[in-house]
Amino acid sequence: VEEQEEIRKKLELEKILDKAVDLGVSYADVRYQCYDYEVITVENKTLKSYSSRRLSGLGIRVAIKGAVGYASTSDLSRNSLEKTLENATKAAKSIKSEKQPFGETEINTADVKLPIKINPVDVSPEEKVSIALDANKSAWISDRIKSAITRLGLSNDFRLYISSEGTKVNVETTLVGLMHESVAKVNGVMERVPYSESVCAGFEFIKSTDWNSFTADISELAIQAASSKTPPPGTHPVVIDPEVFGVVLHEAFGHASEGDLVFTGDSVLQNKLGVQLASESVTVVDEGIVEGGYFYPFDDEGVKKKRTVIVENGVLKNYLCDRHSALQFGVESTGNGRAQDFENIPIVRQTNYYLQPRDYKLEELIENIDFGIYVREKGWTGGQVEPGMGTFTFGVGPSKVIRNGELAETVRGVVISGSILETLKTVDAVGKDLKMTTSVFGACGKGGQRATVGMGGPHVRVRKMTVGGR
Amino acid sequence: LEEGERMELAELAVKKALSMGATEAEAYIQRAKRVRVEFTEEIENMKTIESLGIALRVALGKKIAMYSTSIVDESEIGNVVAKAVKIAKVAPEDPHWENMNKKFGNAPAEGYYDETIGNLGHQEIVETLSSAVNRMKDYDARVKPTRGFLATSVSNVSIANSYNVSCERKETGIGVWMRTKAEDAGMKSTGSEHQQARFWKEINFEDLAEKAAEKSVKFLKAKPISSVKMSVIIRNQVFANILGVILSGPINADWVQKGRSPLANKLGTQIAPENISVVDDGVMYGGWRTKPFDEEGHPTQKTSVIENGVLKNYLYDTYTALKDNVESTGNAQRYYYWMNPQPSPNNLILKPGETSPEEIIRGTKKGTYIEETIGEWLSNPVSGNLNATITHGYLVENGELTEPIKGVVISGNFYELLKNGIEIVGNDSRNSMQNYSSTVKLTQLTIAGK
Fold first, then answer.
1. Would you say A30 and A63 are in contact if contact means Cβ atoms under 8 Å apart?
2. CB pairs under 8 A, 24+ apart, for B94-98?
3. What is the value of ipTM here, to two decimals?
4. Which chain B residue has the Cα nearest residue A264?
5. Which of B44, B76, B226 would you mutate first to test chain A, the one with the most A CBs within 10 A?
6. pLDDT tens for residues B288-319?
């Protein structure tokens, strides 16, 4: 990737901004991006696909009063850039608005690159393929394994932002990871266990990890799950592992704390600032740079992503904001204006959203439960929420029954559901272990856009949760 | 790049790949122009995206690789080819690889391009959505529009491969989603509607707006119910989603060949009662994924999947078809241009019956009617475990919809349901993306409530 200075000069980005102002807009910004992504897929010991791609292009956002027009192109010729600007301006002009588009923010100049040793894009295809193949072969630990898929993924994302207000920021982030899924069949029951591990780092992370035992463990769990029963449906006390709690928090509470959903009344958290809505042991934070999470120092509006406290000891303190929603609340952007890529307008997104750890050990969380479920993430199948109501449903991985204060048998097909506000009120103990995760494979979807996020927390005990079995 | 130029570039890429040692090559170029307008309480923004991308797949004997980029011009083609060939060289041989698609051509598909969509002005699109937003506001003082969008797309696909054949098409699409919120005396609820179509005039924006508003008002008093087992009526679009989530994978030849499909080795067997038929129809007029050829250039067709309860066919692309020594069914799909083609339904249709949804309700003494769910895609197609949270539903008592309900979970096993659980298929077929279903009545499902 060329340096910021060179790209700016080559594409004459300042000129586009000047021309936009000449066309009568009150605000303009340009985002250039060059994104490399590779996924190597091995299925059942054979290389299924090696997909490598580059996405590069530019998007122009203009505002005329509160009307926002946007246009993007992957064709960077002079002609195309002029037409893109014209499209953005026409779009803004077709919308009637007397409001202001964005809240005030600081002017930034920055050039940040995640420190890495080996750029994964430059590693030979041969080396990458052989790591994925070896990992896949190690998953075939028994004839009960019917299928095994391994993916090695990597991305390098360079983003440049420049605005008519004078901000110039560029950020480069690298992400690598491996995901594996084993399907086991035991006595006619088939179970699928997917799991992945990704880190913001260079290829050195891939090289220094033992992926062979990683995939073998997943197969082991798939067999265990296929040999186990589903949990008794009903309401039970549960202990939730950091990864599940991280996703539930992100999906069911995090989205509801996103300012754009709040001001449109699409969130259960509207008009709740200052209200005690969770138990006192709950403190929730969104932060741009956290160990294990996604590296995100600046957002796609050139705003620095600082530490934002959403809930402090159970009391709702702040919403996540981009510049548009910040204006509605009369606050400053929290640096959460994120766009999937240059083809999209930034919207409010979480960065690294997590529950702050407290002081319980896992054994202490479990010891007082007569009958309950230890809800685990490994093998997670997905989830969905209605942020307007705060209701959620998640299919988690093979989990454990808790009986008389101890972990007992494995259960499969576990689905948890509930209302997030009730769930956070019934959190009665928070563990001391913080674990953050991110992913080069999956991303969080909202409004048709995907964003890589970090999620996490410690182990958490919830007094009652609806558990569906099948 | 104009239409002819894109094909020239695709053919150039193929030629270059062969000259650099590839034994086979395929270039896929996609150009898309998409417009999207979003609203919250009022129209918020509008965007226009022009995108172009090329995906080059090469084979060196049985070694396959693909490289793609959004930088599509003559000077870049050399780099694209070099990168793809370099990757192919290190790829291990795929023993099942035979060859790329050799059968190009157009099936008699119609109704996938609407000239109106490409000619819509910025102003017209904004005004159309704007009047729908106003309709929600005017419906009832308790209702507010909260979020939604109107998106249109015009896209062109050009495919060329080393078997000296090529094909091109252009298609259009329009999608709309609207959500409202109602508030009254401390009670809150939401209502939403969505539709996807090929033609601009197929969508009645004001009608959708009104239905979303009406739904949010009706559900103000919705409550959870206690756990029970009873018959369940599922609205057409909701069951279409379930059908897509559960069935699309297992009828995919790739899943079958890899041992992931619970429908493997079941061809010719009765897996459902005689009133159940499912087809995949790539040529139906105006279908969401109707097109004359698939994403490898193979002609599309209408394929019977389940006929009167008997499993008839799996869906194939070229690779999986050659592996089973059959003809491709024209189901090669690429979700994005940079993805490898793989089998996927074109338009997956549960064949409608003769009963209207009103009659189904009238004939139900005690049950639940499901209007909206979330989380149905969590269902597990491998085990058939079906799960969804009802966000909008009604109790059915003595043939009538009575109390609105929400926040309860339905669960069951799809394959058991398919075998003897679908009592009635209605006559009101409607789509949710590429999945088509009518309202159905299921005999018994568990509802996990309070």
1. no
2. B94/A46, B94/A47, B94/B62, B94/B63, B94/B64, B95/A46, B95/B62, B96/A46, B96/B319, B96/B322, B96/B323, B97/B59, B97/B62, B97/B64, B97/B319, B98/B319, B98/B322, B98/B323
3. 0.81
4. B146
5. B44
6. 999 999 999 999 999 999 999 999 999 999 99
